[in-house]
């Protein structure tokens, strides 16, 4: 097997065991099984926390589009008149003539723990009994994009919670890496891609964040930086209450392909040189954009001090050869690789990514690549 391959695909999901099955009779399919959180379990195996985006086979019924929503009594299908929506992105639709935009999703996401071997080569067990599905109103439209960090002997997992109330970051916690308890909202509306450092700094938890919004201000024309969504940092005494740092974090630079936005990818891991992390940069193209992975190195004692930012040559790009045999399932118009996890494997790193918002990709990278 090569050092770059797909480990889990949409057809690997058994939807008869989906958490939606008890409520919805309408047929569904796996739009994507992707963007997996990654961690090492106490016994040495690895855990992928796979995002399963489950979509309706027939999203349009008569003159209405339908969206799946969780409620305390089960899942329901909301109806939106087709005449009142616009779809420019296959992952979502927008209500017409609404400012700020009001969106609906073409799928609902839940998390599936997939245990794989310590070398990330084979699937050991798919833990349907430990799946993480919406369980609160702030998760009513889905639980997305888990990132897992081992800090102080326990596992902290951030997710993006989607609801009409807020688009937030929620926190889960585990004492064994496999069973997770929901702790609630930790960052409010549209602060995405939060991931904790794998270790404390000055006795405090540290995290990358990425606030979004509709209004950004331009840098001067002679600035090396581009405006727009960027990676910020925050610290916490307990992992639940977060104070943003005053200094800026990692920003998109002029002359690079990250012209639309950047955001966190893998949890920062401590190396002899400092905190190393992989992040994503987006090049504006069509409705979705091209996603690539880059990396940066932060000072071990003052992570706001960026020692190195490798944002010209990508660390990872989408690889069409990996998805050639499932190309008929692809729905995005542009190439996407979205890194979501990393573990130390001795002489190299094992990196987990979402490929094409469709499947889970594993890449083995030598540590020399980051020097």
TrEMBL record:
InterPro entries the record matches: Glyco_hydro_beta-prop_sf, Mannoside_phosphorylase
SUPFAM superfamilies: Arabinanase/levansucrase/invertase
Keywords: Glycosidase, Glycosyltransferase, Hydrolase, Transferase
Highest rank taxon of the organism: Bacteria
Pfam short name (any one): Glyco_hydro_130
Molecular function via GO: glycosyltransferase activity; hydrolase activity, acting on glycosyl bonds
Protein family: Belongs to the glycosyl hydrolase 130 family.
Name this protein carries in UniProt: Glycosidase
